[in-house]
Amino acid sequence: MTTYALRKASPASTRADAVVVGVLPTDSGPRLHPAGDAVAEAWGRRLQPLLATLGVTGEAGEVHHVPTAGSITSPLLVLVGLGSPDAPAKGSKGASGRRRGSLPTTVGHDAVRRAAGVAARNIPNAASVALALPADTPELVRAVLDGWVLGGYAFDRYRSDDKAADRRPGEVVVLTDGAKRKETVAAFEQAQVVASAVAAARDWVNTPAGDLTPPQFVEALTAAHGELTKGRGAPKVGLRVIDETELADLGCGGIIGVGKGSSAPPRLVELTYEPKGATRHLALVGKGITFDSGGLSIKPAASMATMKLDMAGAAAVTHATFAIAALGLPVRVSTFVPLAENMVSGTSTRPGDVLTMYRGKTVEVSNTDAEGRLILADALGRAVEAEPDAIVDVATLTGAMVMALGDRVTGVLGTDDVVEQVLTAAGTAGEASWGMPIPEEMTDRVRSSKIADLAQADGVRWGGGLFAAAFLREFTDGRPWAHLDIAGPSFNTGEAWGHVTPGGTGTAVATLVDLARSYAE
Q1: CB burial class (10 A; 0-12, 13-18, 19+) of residue 386?
Q2: Hey, which residues are catalytic here?
Q3: Which residues have a Cβ under 8 Å from the Cβ of 65 and sit 6 or more positions away?
Q4: Which CATH number is associated with domain 3-180?
Q5: Which CATH number fits domain 195-345+365-444+460-520: 3.40.630.10, 3.90.1170.40, 3.20.20.80, 3.40.50.2300?
Q6: Euclidean distance between CA atoms 489 and 505, whole angstroms
Q7: Mind listing the pLDDT tens digit for each residue in 451-506?
Q8: What's the whole-model pTM score?
Q9: Which residues contact 441 (CB under 8 A, 6 or more apart)?
């Protein structure tokens, strides 16, 4: 178990086994960030020739290990690139607006978060690590800790001989002059809660679908809820689980229709957090398809390989809710988690079937692989009845959004004010997002069914992500609403980059917490 601490100390004299310092590229060569000035002074004139010999550039993603031989107290110096402000790392917003030849005293939160993540994966066995990265504001302290915790994340539940936990340092210290300031301490403590929530969401997304069917998801959620709410002073979060019988009685035709092809029955989980003094009310909805075969509109085999990820929205809203409660944010939250497994059997919903959603609208199904919007429709109907100030849904909804924005950017659609609030929160959280439109012609397409109120899909290749959002809007009853399509950034199929490790990313958790924080303020 790693413990985390804040400390006001010189990186040159701290007694940690390893010290991490950031490097910036400039026209005159790489330079240590001012947070590592004490290290540069300790090395003196020997530093620049050393950096040149090692081939240090300071570009993002770069890391070098330097035995100190007594030049500083720590036996190991780890240099990580912060990246060039006018040439940001791939997928980064950049560190600042300064020219490459300058030496800024501050860098962007994204650059710091990603550098800390790279460092976390590149520290050899060390009992203690000191992070001398830019941390002169509470926001940068948060970025350092976020990056370290998430960059060092590992999912080793199924490895019988994995020793990753043994390689993690017992203590990680963030060095900052503001170590004793209340706002810095608060940001540091809150960052631990949010980063842990993101890691927990990653765990669920990474769990094989055979071990996380809808009933098993409920078991995991109930266990996490029990841990959060146990003990004196623990937050109070209401939990209701609706099984397949009650779902049918309620008329949740979308959840029942998607889930009836599986031997693992569907569920709907509802969480309520109602702290004293809350004046704003936020509803969260998360898509929970625990595995997506495509149903009778079956996916190609290769496309099923990662379909355990299709519950990433459910994981995000659940752990965001738990984090909001753990932080004690004074905002009311109602969370709706529809869960189903989209499988092939003699009882599966057929293309051409008509389903009746919660609150009565009918939908003609033409593609059973567009199932997420069906379970969200029921959950959005439940959310509307909670009468929140705003509804935000999170879903791995469309491949079309991945085609439009790539695999690192979330598409955000909905009513203008809520979309803007989500984009602002995502910027604070360091999660890349982009606003997308819902053109009026999409309404005509969604209402084009000849036999039902709505068409679930219309077969047109173009604008699939926009069509899906327009479909969901039909179930929001005109309330302020935003839809986060996380189909791309929810799962990293490649190598680790920055603070993002392979597999589930936990995206949207931090954005939702920051959104709730803005509502609380």
Answers
A1: middle
A2: 299, 373
A3: 76, 77, 78, 79, 122, 124
A4: 3.40.220.10
A5: 3.40.630.10
A6: 7
A7: 999 999 998 989 999 999 999 999 999 999 999 999 999 999 999 999 999 999 99
A8: 0.94
A9: none
